[in-house]
Amino acid sequence: MNEEQKTMALQVGVTVLILLAALTIGEYFIGLFAPYWWAPLMAIALLKAFYIVRDYMHIGRVFAGD
Amino acid sequence: MSTGTLSIADYHKKTVTNRLGLWLFIMSDAFVFAGLFIARFYLYGAGVRPELSQIVGLIVTSILVLSSFFANRGEVSMAYGDTKGYFRNTLITIILGIAFLIGVVGVEWQIAPYGPDHDALWSLFYTMTGFHAFHVLTGVIFLIIVYRNARKGLYTAERHFPVEAAAVYWHFVDVVWVFFYPALYLIGLPPI
């Protein structure tokens, strides 16, 4: 059970890494070909920050109080 | 009273308070970075950015994202009692953190066409990257201290708040760069 939970927690980390990598590549190409599209670039940055704060920083722990 | 003498229940109660303190510190630090971020757009809007190497920007960003991944793996490993996994992943995080510093200060700053005294845009570039690099440096030091303490056997699956704090701080440094990267490297074009 413990090992299963650990594997699941590590899997979340892998999923977030894949998402962050895809979003970073996406924003790199937007910056290359459409550098004035500041709104999509900021939206991507917000999305990346959301995943990091939720899944890597575990902000939910602060509110859960456990 | 040292945390080692606390019961598990008391340690968890203390952790709830410590965690809140950590997040309050992070929020207050975030406002300083937000000020720099806003200053960049207030002064130059979305049409102009410093003349920087896009490839170096992408590489250092990838390094930092990857370091966050390994920091998370290290914390998860410790939380489940896998100390070997913690040591391995934290060591990789530290190495990637140093690689990021070399990329920004050792490469980007050296190949940048202007110094911080050229104009407000370049002054901002060096302030933003310098202030961030200083946080990366303190994050690396923090990770090394916690790593050394873990080597001494100070943390367990039940008692490892310093491991969590070091990882959360590291991820915060990553979040800051998530906003600085498009602000400095992607939005706008270099002035003609």
Largest interface: A-B, 38 and 40 residues
Q: Quick one: CATH superfamily of chain B?
A: Cytochrome c oxidase, subunit III, four-helix bundle
| The top level CATH class name of chain B | Mainly Alpha
The count of helical stretches of chain A stands at 3
> Secondary-structure element order of chain A, as H and E?
HHH
| DSSP, total strands of chain A | 0
Shape of chain B: elongated
Distance between the termini of chain A: 20 Å
| Biggest beta sheet summary of chain A | none
- Rg of chain B computed from alpha carbons, rounded to a whole number of angstroms: 19 Å
Given helix and strand content, the structural type of chain B is: mainly alpha
* Uncertain parts of chain A: none
Task: Using the coordinates shown, work out and report the CATH topology of chain B.
Answer: Four Helix Bundle (Hemerythrin (Met), subunit A)
Please report which band the strand proportion of chain A falls in: under 5%, 5-15%, 15-25%, 25-35%, 35-45% or over 45%. Answer: under 5%
Give start-end ranges of low-pLDDT stretches of chain B.
Answer: none
Subunit arrangement of the protein: heterodimer
Using only C-alpha atoms, the radius of gyration of chain A works out to: 15 Å
Task: Describe it.
The complex is a heterodimer of chains A (66) and B (192). Chain A is mostly helical and 66 residues long. Chain A has one domain (2-64). Helices cover 85% and strands 0% of the residues of chain A. Chain A contains three helices and no strands. Chain A has helices at residues 2-33, 38-56, 60-64. The longest helix of chain A is centred in the first third of the chain and has 32 residues, at 2-33. Chain A is elongated. The model of chain A has no long low-confidence stretch (mean pLDDT 94). Chain B is mostly helical and 192 residues long. Chain B has one domain (30-186): Four Helix Bundle (Hemerythrin (Met), subunit A) (Up-down Bundle), CATH 1.20.120. Helix content of chain B is 78%, strand content 0%. In chain B, α2 (54-79) runs antiparallel to α5 (161-186) and α4 (120-151) packs antiparallel against α5. The radius of gyration of chain B is 19 Å and the shape is elongated. Chain B starts with 7 loop residues before the first helix and ends in a 6-residue tail after the last helix. In chain B, 39% of the residues are buried. The model of chain B has no long low-confidence stretch (mean pLDDT 95). At the A-B interface, α1 and α2 of A face α1, α2 and α5 of B.
